[in-house]
Specification:
two-stranded antiparallel sheet; globular; alpha+beta; 138 residues; 25% helix; 4 strands
Length: 138
């Protein structure tokens, strides 16, 4: 990961991420991780209410940074990754964090559908469930 990045920032170090973005730096992180309900809202992902990190919404609100969706796909013929950068999200963040997270998940879902076999399904994306929902993994 450090081959293309200046340095790594711990998921517990939001201040460094905010400083980096405020000075115009670039931050990549995986918004589809399940870190539990404390820093998440539930938003649909493949039709399943999914704990979705608030960090995308919060970092954009705190720093005014652009949110540019990025998706790597492995090309087996070329034996290399090809990265797709989508246009920066317009009117993001909004005043509605739940709508913003649903929007991020919809974009991610659209990209995953291009090559679902390349998505990191072993990550327990649906581990945290809304109150009253049965566990997803048994």
């Amino acid at each position: 990961r450090l081959r293309y990045a200046e340095h790594m920032i711990s998921k517990r170090d939001a201040r460094t991420a905010v400083r980096l973005l405020r000075r115009g730096g670039v931050l990549w992180y995986a918004p589809d991780q399940d870190f539990g309900p404390e820093q998440s809202l539930f938003a649909p992902f493949f039709g399943i209410q999914t704990a979705t990190l608030l960090a995308t919404h919060r970092l954009a609100r705190l720093t005014g940074c652009a949110v540019v969706p990025m998706f790597p796909l492995y090309d087996p013929q070329q034996r290399r990754y090809r990265v797709t950068l989508l246009p920066a999200l317009e009117h993001f963040p909004s005043d509605d964090p739940a709508a913003d997270l649903a929007r991020v998940n919809a974009i991610m879902e659209q990209q995953v559908r291009r090559a679902p076999e390349q998505y990191w399904w072993v990550h327990r994306r649906f581990k945290t469930r809304p109150p009253g929902d049965a566990p997803f993994y048994e």
